[in-house]
Design brief:
The chain has 260 residues and is of the alpha+beta class. The chain contains 5 helices and 11 strands. It has a domain of 174 residues: Clam (outer membrane lipoprotein receptor (LolB), chain A), CATH 2.50.20.20. An 11-stranded antiparallel beta sheet has the order 6-5-4-3-2-1-11-10-9-8-7. β8 and β9 form a beta hairpin. The relative contact order is 0.15. The longest helix has 20 residues.
């Protein structure tokens, strides 16, 4: 009995030692998402303030601005647009060629202070050299070396002799026709032809009529070039005139004063 018990005790001791040698399974740690990373469920149920702002703030849109060259305009609309544009112009640089039929020809360039002032140099059939000329209303001043002070002056023909007034001819258009598009002095233009009928009493004229052509900026309706052939009758002047007028540098600072 004693031997048997001793053997059983030895077996038990051996079993305990074997259990101590077997490694125990380790528990896997629980990984929690970072506090600042929302779960899918949170994003689906509770939108952030930025998301709410995107959902509730309307997006403002601005319609593109159309220029005269980007839309189809009738000849009447182009001419009326130019008349309105030029009625607000205060000054311009101009170049001109003029023929008063069976009387004289003239050409020159200078500046206009609208509606009735001009300062320019011109060459005409009466002059051997360019003559500096200033027009203020119905009075003209021109360089004359034979006069003390170097300037002569006197009344002028209100229409034929005042280039500032030529800009107004555009308002008397009738029955315009669009001839196409052309580039004039680097400006893309509508080219139109039309009849011209003066308003009775304009600049003291009884009547006036003829034909005209205009090259009008496709960008802003400004008058770039005009050609006229008109006949007119008044108390102080009655003639037939051909005229070419080119305008640029609109609304630049210009000062025109009578010479001293």
């Amino acid at each position: 009995m004693t031997a048997t018990r001793g053997g059983c005790f030895a077996v038990a001791v051996l079993f305990v030692l074997l259990l101590a040698c077997v490694p125990q399974a380790e528990e896997s740690p629980t990984v929690s998402p970072p506090a600042d990373v929302p779960t899918v469920a949170v994003l689906a149920e509770t939108p952030t303030e930025a998301a709410v702002a995107v959902q509730t703030t309307p997006v403002e849109t601005t319609a593109p601005t159309e220029t005269p060259g980007e839309v189809d305009l009738s000849p009447e609309e182009i001419m009326e647009g130019s008349v309105q544009k030029m009625s607000g112009v205060t000054s311009a640089h101009f170049v001109f060629e003029q023929e008063v039929v069976e009387s004289y020809t003239a050409s020159g360039e200078g500046v206009l202070l609208l509606p009735d002032c001009a300062h320019f140099e011109k060459t005409s059939t009466f002059d051997k050299e360019p003559v500096e000329t200033i027009i203020i209303g119905s009075t003209g001043y021109w360089v004359d070396e034979a006069i003390s002070g170097g300037w002569n002056s006197g009344p002028i023909a209100p229409f034929a002799s005042n280039p500032a007034r030529w800009v107004e001819l555009l308002q008397f258009y009738e029955n315009p026709a669009l001839m196409g598009q052309e580039m004039v002095n680097g400006v893309d233009c509508h080219h139109l032809q039309f009849a011209v009928t003066f308003e009775p009493g304009w600049l003291g004229l009884f009547s006036g009529a003829g034909t005209g052509e205009a090259w009008i900026s496709m960008q802003d309706f400004s008058l770039v070039k005009a050609v006229y052939a008109v006949e007119y009758e008044g108390a102080r002047e009655s003639d037939s005139m051909k005229l070419t007028l080119e305008l640029s540098q609109l609304d630049k600072p210009v000062t025109i004063e009578a010479p001293r």
